[in-house]
Specification:
It is built from 13 helices and eleven strands. With about 260 residues, the chain is mainly alpha-helical. It has a three-stranded antiparallel β-sheet with strand order 2-4-3. A two-stranded antiparallel sheet has the order 1-9. Strands 5-6 form a two-stranded antiparallel sheet. The longest helix is centred in the C-terminal third of the chain and has 17 residues. The mean pLDDT is about 90.
């Protein structure tokens, strides 16, 4: 994990910073000589929205997806749980979601795969800076797509790769993962870490927590919200982020029912 942190700091200090109007050249296609090679021996951090999209695509539960396809990297400096895609234990450390014809979950591929060859650096996440996030070109020697003539602006690439929904959910996640609570040096206790992990990654377990406990008797949740989160994972995740703000950081995002209402 120190290696990843060092890379982040190098990006912050040395990589050219791109805006949405910056141009670059790139193309990836079936017959390019490096096809599928960039999908091996890589560090793929998964976002909460990635998990929802992937587990739906694979038609499995969030717990099954987490057990089979992810692992928790150990990092003493990490404020909260993060998960990474578990690669195959073969010679090239191939991605378990890639076949001979390419990505088998392409329409629901993770944010970082969708963004490539672009990356996004968050100075606040790396060193606590108040600088704005910026885009950069990922340096991947195996990739030949950089030498293709097709031109893009960053804005065009994001639109073409349908990143908008991922960014919208990612922004909500950052309100939790980059919360000022952490910048003040505070730490989550084991129970809070477990709740963070459940809400953000094990969405099916979080639904059980909401509907199969006394949660709805203890907290006021509007009827239309209850109906949405019964079956809609995206809406449940948004609700979960509000719950985390309440139970982790003490924000008044969830309203407690008055005692006499439970009588």
């Amino acid at each position: 994990m120190n290696e990843i942190q060092n890379l982040k700091e190098t990006i912050l200090k040395e990589y050219p910073r791109l805006t949405k109007d910056s141009e670059f050249k790139f193309s990836c296609f079936r017959n390019i000589s490096c096809f599928n090679k960039c999908c091996s021996d890589v560090n793929i951090f998964l976002t909460p929205y990635d998990v929802i999209r992937l587990k739906k695509n694979l038609k499995i539960t969030s717990m099954e997806f987490l057990d089979k396809y992810t692992f928790l990297p150990i990092d003493e400096n990490q404020n909260h749980p993060v998960i990474m895609l578990r690669l195959n234990q073969d010679e090239v450390k191939s991605c378990p979601l890639v076949g001979p014809d390419g990505c088998t979950v392409y329409e629901d591929r993770p944010w970082s795969c969708r963004m490539f060859p672009l990356g996004v650096a968050s100075p606040k996440e790396i060193n606590g800076s108040t600088e704005e996030d910026f885009y950069f070109i990922i340096e991947e020697p195996v990739c030949k797509g950089y030498y293709e003539p097709t031109k893009w602006t960053v804005r065009e690439w994001l639109r073409d790769q349908k990143v908008e929904a991922y960014d919208e959910m990612g922004k909500l996640f950052k309100e939790i993962s980059l919360h000022d609570y952490f910048s003040k040096g505070k730490k989550l206790n084991p129970a809070q870490l477990e709740m963070f992990y459940t809400v953000c990654y094990n969405i099916d377990k979080f639904r059980e927590f909401v509907f199969e406990s006394t949660f709805l008797k203890r907290f006021e949740v509007e009827d239309d919200v209850v109906e949405k989160i019964k079956t809609n994972d995206e809406e449940l995740l948004k609700f979960g982020f509000q719950w985390l703000k309440y139970c982790l950081f003490g924000e008044k995002t969830i309203k407690v029912r008055l005692k006499d209402e439970n009588a």
